[in-house]
Amino acid sequence: MKKLFTTLSNIWKIEDLRARILFTLLCLLIYRIGSFIVLPGVDSASLDDAQAKEGLLGLLNMFAGGSFSRASIFALGVMPYISASIVVQLLGIAVPYFQKLQKEGESGRKKINQFTRYLTIIITALQAIGYVRSQISPDARLFSEPMFTISSMFILTAGTMFVMWLGEKITDKGIGNGISMIIMVGIIAQLPFGILSEFNSRMGAQGGLISFIVEIAALFLVVMFTILIVQGVRKIPVQYAKKIVGAKQYGGVRQYIPLKVNAAGVMPIIFAQAIMFIPTTIGSFFPSAQSSFLAAFSDYTSLTYNLTFAFMIIAFTFFYTAITVNPVQMSDDMKKNGGFVPGVKPGKSTGDYIDAVISKITLPGSVFLAIIAIMPSIAIILGVNSQFANFYGGTSLLILVGVVLDTLQQVESHLLMRHYDGLMKTGRIKGRTPVSAGGSVI
Asked: Do the beta carbons of residue 111 and residue 101 sit within 8 Å?
């Protein structure tokens, strides 16, 4: 406990780190205040928020920190930006022009960011119209149409762009990972309500306090398991040839390429979830033609839904890892810098070796990711409240664990640069994205 207080004291002593933390907290406070400001022309007392807390809408509501169900000016949060980022990232794989921009360095990155912002505006405007028509009932509208829809579209779009701006400011002047921090705060804001809801339901049911304590212990074990998956790496040793320039010797050291067990991050779950909601969407357009097949995919606790969901996550993990981690480029970079894997020929043999290692570690990584993804459904089947069950796995838990680890890594880097002790007694905190593997959007 004494070491904890000493570390907190050291954090506060570093002027730059202190300023960054305070700036980040200020931005997050502004975001949370804005999430409670209701859209003009909406009667908050007449809102029916029960539908906005179930299924996909419940997940969006969690990411938006409850703004979605409150019809806030930040109701859409940063989800349109994430959707635009995914689209642009996929265009970078399929469209030569975007591939060229990715190779142009800083100037190309600025152009890609500009495209992402423009696409975010378009997606937000479309989602805003759909949100107003589907989530705000006519009884809750104080303005007449079409003025209400038009004004709400502009306000929701402006709200999303402002949240994006806050995220960029946190990245530049705060601790970093601005968009991820905003999503994390939105998820954490729902945790007390989930715990309270589960506590109240357990107090009135059989088992009482003992069942609640067992659920908290199970949640702790799931979080520990998720941390192991996020931080798990397979190190490939790389030896660099010795070079003597003048009186100095360069190279001759052994380093490692850290290959992530889960290099794809949360992207496979996001892709799989988007596809899994297609049958439900089709069924909503043709309610009279509902079949047992569509009904099975409408129930996210059914065996059919979860098996299909798990299989798609495994498939998307292999796909996303293949497009983000390039063994050939890694092999070429090592060869140019005089590096080689001991016992493996440089060039194509090294690329094949790295590719084989990636394939071997991606299989267990994808299976574990699928298990984490279906954990909320398992928790609901075992009797856990759906609001609390969302924290037992899925995208929300992966984002929470990843962002917390990244933030702690940033803080530890500042401490070690000033020759203070780190946050851990032994070793160092590892973030989600190593230098050799591609990072995820979130």
From this structure: yes
For 360-417, write each residue's pLDDT tens digit.
898 888 898 889 888 888 888 888 887 788 788 777 888 888 888 888 888 887 777 7
How many CA atoms lie less than 13 Å away from 305 in the CB half-sphere? Answer: 23
Are 182 and 190 in contact by the 8 Å Cβ rule? The answer is no
Q: Where are the domains of the chain?
A: 1-174, 201-442
- Residue 95: helix, strand or coil by DSSP? coil
Q: How many angstroms separate the CA atoms of 148 and 125, rounded?
A: 14
Provide the token pair at 358.
């990636």
CB 431 within 8 A of CB 317: no
The CATH code for residues 201-442 is: 1.10.3370.10
Helix and strand numbers (H, E) in the chain are: 18, 5
pTM above 0.85, yes or no: no
What is the per-residue pLDDT across 134-193, written as a single tens digit (0 to 9) for each? 778 787 788 787 888 889 899 999 999 999 999 889 988 888 888 888 888 888 888 888
Classify domain 1-174 by CATH architecture.
Answer: Orthogonal Bundle (1.10)
Distance, in Å, from the CA atom of 331 to the CA atom of 361, rounded to the nearest integer, reads 18
